Amino acid sequence: MQQIFNFMYKNSNRLLFLLLLGISLSLTIQSHSFHRSKIISSANFLSGGVYERVNNLNEYLNLKTQNEALALENAKLKSLLFSKKDTTAVKKLDSLKGVKPDDIVVSKVIHNSYNVYENYLTLNSGEKDGIKPDMGVINDLGIVGIIENTSPKYSTVISILNKRTQINAKIKKSNHFGSLNWNGKSTGFVQLTDLPRLALIKIGDTIVTGGQSVIFPENINIGTIAKIYRDKQTNFYTLDIKLFNDMTNLGHVYIIKRKDREEIINLEKRKKDE
Amino acid sequence: MNSTLFVNISRFILLLAIQIIIFNNMNFLGYISPFPYILFIILYPVNGNKSGLVAASFLLGIIMDLFSNSGGTHATACLVLAYFRPSIFKFAFGLSYEYQTIKLNDVLTPQRFSFILLSVVIHHFTLFLLEAFQLSFILDTLITTLLSTLFTIIICIIIIYIIKPNKR
């Protein structure tokens, strides 16, 4: 017993190092391996609060560009409104209850990262605003990411510039779909993989979200095809997609709450159980 | 004794604040991001409590992780640097470093420079290796380590000179 204590006392520094190294390495490995299992995330009181303060200051510096973006979006919405042929036409409702399938929450990006392989954003709305994990985040130009962690006032978003994202996407004009991921190289481009070679594509075609995901509604803009890689071995294309969004410059975003999400998930689970 | 403790605590908080508010938003050419917050570990007193340094480095790293959503990469890198610091001292200043009074924040000599260089390289290599977490990215990791090390060292030396101007 005495010897054990002596050993512990002599090597206290090394033992402390090994203990803490074990903790930090397990945190690192865990953050790389599982989907949504972050213990250390910026959706908390401390970092959320600091980022919000800093962002309040920074906001004044780019008020002008934000205003311009909002004015552009307004103009686009107005043109949609005016070009409608019959404004008195009754709007078709999607379900018997007479509610729209999606709800939208406006939120603001208070922290944005884009220089590592796994990038996250922090938003200034959380559980109090009804935000839950796995909701889609978009802005007027296209998709931004998926909610990963939430706290009462803040939430973190797994950006599309993250090696772990997998988003269902399709070609706008042909319905052939593939999955969207990022190779970690450039902030302006993401990759669309597993697109069947039957699809007729050319550079410049628009890519939108597919209808298969319960996170995003169908037909939300993503980007245009910039480069086509033909692989002789497999029957699939790999495409470089140029994003409509500038991921290094994000201001206000919209969070999509899908009302029939739980219904779809329950239905699919029942199918699996049987 | 109390004043060194106070200096270290304020250095801890100040460097973290500067790192999070200013240097985390820096990103030259999409590769280079400086991390001068490790100056806390570099400037920790030579004869200070070793276990204290290891624990403080862990705390420093975990707070950085909290702010940059990076799991435990900063914590691991800081821990590795803190643990190997005595060995780096031995390498840079010779065997009898513990009996000399080494002041790091003074005129830049080759010994001091080699100590800072080695510390930054060890920290950055661990950090970027864990951040990529894939051996196929090893070339990218090495390039990022090289370029970021350069910038971190420049910023570290500038900070040392700003805080401790030459008294002579």
From TrEMBL, chain A:
Tell me which UniProt keywords the record has, alphabetically.
Cell shape
GO annotations under biological process?
regulation of cell shape
Please state every residue range assigned to the domain named Rod shape-determining protein MreC beta-barrel core.
109-257
Concerning Gene3D superfamilies, the annotation shows: Rod shape-determining protein MreC, domain 1, Rod shape-determining protein MreC, domain 2
Q: What is the annotated signal peptide range for this record?
A: none
Q: Origin, by domain of life?
A: Bacteria
One GO term describing the cellular component: plasma membrane
Tell me which InterPro entries the record gives. Cell/Rod_1 (IPR042177), Cell/Rod_MreC_2 (IPR042175), MreC (IPR007221), MreC_beta-barrel_core (IPR055342)
Q: What does this protein do?
A: Involved in formation and maintenance of cell shape.
User: What does the similarity note say?
Assistant: Belongs to the MreC family.
What is the name attached to this protein's record? Answer: Cell shape-determining protein MreC
Tell me the organism.
Answer: Flavobacterium petrolei
Q: Which gene encodes it?
A: mreC
Automatic annotation (TrEMBL), chain B:
Q: Which residues cross the membrane?
A: 28-46, 58-84, 113-130, 142-163
UniProt keyword list: Membrane, Transmembrane, Transmembrane helix
What is the protein name given in its UniProt record? Rod shape-determining protein MreD
**Which species does this protein come from?**
Flavobacterium petrolei
